[in-house]
Amino acid sequence: EPEVTQTPSHQVTQMGQEVILRCVPISNHLYFYWYRQILGQKVEFLVSFYNNEISEKSEIFDDQFSVERPDGSNFTLKIRSTKLEDSAMYFCASTRGNQPQHFGDGTRLSIL
Amino acid sequence: RKEVEQDPGPFNVPEGATVAFNCTYSNSASQSFFWYRQDCRKEPKLLMSVYSSGNEDGRFTAQLNRASQYISLLIRDSKLSDSATYLCVVSPYYNQGGKLIFGQGTELSVKP
């Protein structure tokens, strides 16, 4: 069964540094998402992406965050200047649009 | 009021027990409803979609009451492998292209 893959599985970064999280969605999917889950808390929506543009974003997704689909296969989340409170699991998800979202196994981001 | 509210548990039950989870959502315009399962520090995985007519998948039965804005999940004959956190998930959109809004999850522990 096709999977959403995410790299790296764990990223450790100094506060204030830029970080890029990478995702390869399932190949025939059209909608792409980033969610995050702070330890012990619920999964929170960050952003959705369709037709090469952001279709919706949450209040969490401020100017420090950006997404890109640079080459038609990868889908990236960039955090420009990381803060301690950005420490979380980041999940990428994708769907064709008429089926449930499939989640990648996540990137654990630790900000020191 | 939380958008999606669940009893956090934990629910500790013996093997073979029947267990029921409840969930309420605040947005009456919500269109799609799901139960996801999350194992410790792993990605959410779809358990089942939930329909107004109710639906069953083996030992799992889900019900939706739109008037009460209430969703339930019943697990019969619970197995050790059912131990996980069960996430009630709602989307404001009819198709799967929209964002998912997660509850904080109900933890289930099935003991021998």
Provide structural commentary:
The complex is a heterodimer of chains A (112) and B (112). In chain A, 0% of the residues lie in helices and 51% in strands. Chain A has no helices and eleven strands. In chain A, the strands form two sheets. In chain A, strands 2, 4, 5, 6, 9, 10 and 11 form a seven-stranded mixed sheet that branches. Chain B is mainly beta and 112 residues long. In chain B, strand 4 (32-38) and strand 5 form a beta hairpin. Chain B is globular, with a radius of gyration of 13 Å. The mean pLDDT of chain B is 93. At the A-B interface, strand 4, strand 5, strand 9 and strand 10 of A face strand 5 and strand 10 of B.
What are the salient characteristics of this protein?
A: 112 residues, mainly beta, 0% helix, globular, B: 112 residues, six-stranded mixed beta sheet, 11 strands
In percent, how much strand structure appears in the residues of chain A? over 45%
Rg from Cα of chain B: 13 Å
Multimeric organization: heterodimer
- Give the overall silhouette of chain B: globular
> How many strand units of chain B?
11
Low-confidence stretches of chain B: none
Low-pLDDT residue intervals, each spanning 5 or more residues of chain A? none
Structure class of chain A: mainly beta
Sheet-strand content of chain B, in percent, reads over 45%
Span between termini of chain A: 36 Å
How is the biggest beta sheet of chain B arranged?
Answer: 6 strands, mixed
Please give the most extensive interface between any two protein chains, plus how many residues each contributes: A-B, 30 and 21 residues
Helix content of chain B: under 10%
User: Which H/E pattern describes the elements of chain A?
Assistant: EEEEEEEEEEE
Helix content bin of chain A = under 10%
Mean pLDDT of chain A: 94
